[in-house]
Structure formats: C-alpha cells, structure tokens
Amino acid sequence: MAHRKVTIIGGATILLTLAVSLLFLNGCGSSSTLPPTPTPWPTPIVVQQSTYTVTRGSVTDYIILDGRASPVYWDPLYFKVDGKLSVLNVSEGQFVRKDDILAELDTKVLSDQLAQARLTLEQAQNQAQQQQASSKYALERARLTLRMQELTLEKMRRAAGQGPTPQLTQAQAELERARVNLQRAQEAYDAVASRPNVAALPQSAALQTATIDYKLAEARYMQALSDMDSQLAMQELQVQLARLTVQELEEKANAAGGSDVNKAQIQVDALERQIEDRRLRAPYDGQVVAIGINLQGLTKAFAARPKVGDNIAAYAALVVIAKPEPLEITVDSSQKRVSELYVGQPVTITHSAWARPFSAEITALPVAMSDSGNQMAGGQAVHIALPRSAPPMANGDPVKVTIEAETHRDTLFLHPAAVRRFAGRTFVVVQEGDKQRRIDVKAGLENSEQVEILSGLNEGDVVVGP
To answer: Which among 122, 203, 330, 441 could disulfide-bond with 456, CB atoms 3.0 to 4.6 Å apart, if both were Cys?
Structure first.
C-alpha cells in the first residue's frame, strides 16, 4: 500500500505541473480564463486473499532426518603410549594397505638406544662364536687325550696279565660314586653360587661333605693300589682326569657366550617393541575416514586436526580407518525426534542424485537408547541397513531419511498456510459476508502439506489465508 501511495502522489504532481504550464501559456496568448481540468485519481487495486477449504482425509506425521552413507566396519586407531607426534603420513579419504604406517610418535631417543643395543648384540654374538670355536677345538683335543689314556691303560693291563683285585675294584667303585656325588654337589653349588648368602645354603654344606667323601674314597683307593703296580694305578687316574676334562669342556661349550647373547637380544627386542608401540599401522586394507585428536566415532566432531609436535595421549583415537564396503546409512543422534525411532522401523531414503527413493529399515539405535547398552564405542548414531536394491553410493554421501511416524485417517485438515499461530494461540480466519472472524482451532498431526484440525472447524468450512 505504501508503494501505491507514492505512485499516486508522483502522478498528481506531474498533472499539476502540466496544468500550471497550460494556464501560463493561455495567460500569455489570451486574456480569457478557462476552468482547470480535474485530475483523475487511479482506481485502487483490490488484493485477492487465498482461501482454503477444510477437507477430510488422511494426515501423516513425517520425521525427516539428515543421514549419510557410512562404512559398516571401522576401527579407531590409537597409540598405546603418550608422546609427541613426529609423522602423519595420511589424509582423510586416503586408501591404505595393511601394515602401512599411518602416524608415528617421536622415537629419536629410543632409536639411538636401539642402535647401541644392536651393536652390543653383534659384539656378544661375535664373542660367543669365538668362544664356541675355541671350546670346540679344546674339546676335541680332550677327547683325543682321553682315548689315548684309555688305550695306554688297556695296554698296561694286558701287560700285567691280570685284572684288578677285588679290593681295588671296590675302592675304584667307591671313588667313582664319590666323584659323581662331588660333581652333582658342585653343580648344585654352582647354580646358587651367585647368591649373597651362599655359605649358609645347604648346597655349600653338601659340597663340603662330598669333597671330604671324595678325598676319603681317593685315599682308600690309593691304599688299595699299594699292592699293584704304581704305574697302572697312575694310568687309571690319568684316564679319569681325561674324562673329567672332556665333561667340563662339553659343559662350557654348551654355555659358551649364550648368557651375554641372550641378554643383548632381550634388550634389542624390548626397544623394538617400544618403537613399534609408537607407530600407528593400518590393521587391514581400507580408507582413512577421520583424523583428529581424541576422535569420537566416525566423525571429527570437535576433534582438532593433529600437527607435528602435538602431544598425543595414550589410547586416544587419532585415526579412524574403515573398509570401503559394505555401507550403511547413519543418522546423528543429536537431531530432533530421534528418540521416537525404534529398531525394525521402515524408512525411505532419498538423494538428490537418485531418480527414485528406496525403502530400508532401522537396525540399531544409539547407545543411550539401547536397552542392553553394550553397543560398540562411538555408536552415537541410528544405523540403517542398505538393501541389495539400493543405488550405488560412496562413503559420506548425504541423504534424507523419511519416517512415517503416525497416520490419522478420516480426519479434517487444512493447508499449513491457512493456520496462524501467535503468542501461543492457534487460530484461523473465516470470511463471513464482508467481515472476517478469528476462530481458535486445535491442531493435530502436521506435515509440509497438511495440518490436522481436531476441533474448531467443520468439513467444508472456507478459511482465509494471510
């Protein structure tokens, strides 16, 4: 109306100017005065208001939510230790192979320690090889010496023409038992020799007793030899000593350098594990779908983009990797009316690039809405399984999810434009002759095309739009 008023005033001004000009010209050409021509006013334009008729039919309440295509199988990846980020090798959307290193924490100190530990291991292995070679040759010489002593003893016995006496045989057996007992006692003592209180241990007393028994047995044996050729007795002792030497060298050869090598290898393995704990590897072939500090689920939400030098907490998700297929539709649980959904509820999925929508079904609800509460971490979304007939889509594709929440049949409804709301009041305007009257109504279900009228109007009533 204001615009129309400005137009009328502008036209009257022009007409008035023309009238004055004509009067001035007439005054100049003639002395007679003509009456002024009246200025015509424009006919006001009557704005036609839209009208709507109360109709009977079905009204459906639709829940319309935003969703997106998401991977069914995904995993949050995290470091097991705290540290500073030194390398980030991937970006969102990148495809990776199994065991690819996605990110690394600072390992400079550990790498230096590992290099030193590997050098120590190499030195221990070289020393062990040298000891084994030396022990091998010494053992072989001892075995040859033993064989030579045994041959000499056999030759001397044949020369003597008879075997040892019963007394000598008994003394020899006792000496052998004493030697075996002494050997066992010595081995038991060697096993605990590194302990600080070794003198108080029973192994120490047992070694002393075995030593004394061996000395006594040796004395008795020597006494028994008094009746035999001293050279034959000495040769038997030489054989026994040669045997002891072979046994000692065999034991040393088995343990040559092994302890030092094992210790060095353990140190290397421990440092390698610590470095590996500071590497984030892909558990399978997949796609990086999110990167951020302390990620929650598949989306970054408020997670900050990590930078080299940032402190990364242990067990805080840094990268989310997913298998490209299969996909599902997920709906963020923060949207309105999500609490009204239930598992098994049918839905309709639409996309701007698809010619037709398709039907699907809700398969899982957010953790907060789950009865069992045992869904996987990060399950703060509604999950909708895709049927085989679904059109092709990619991870992250946006979709609209429509759910028929409730339908009332054989009910009255109006177009939403006919229903007015102000200050908590819901009403319509009806035309009665040349007058309009406001009528309060009670609304029920609503959608983009319908508002259910529960009371206040009758079928066929005509309502004036705004």
So the answer is: 441
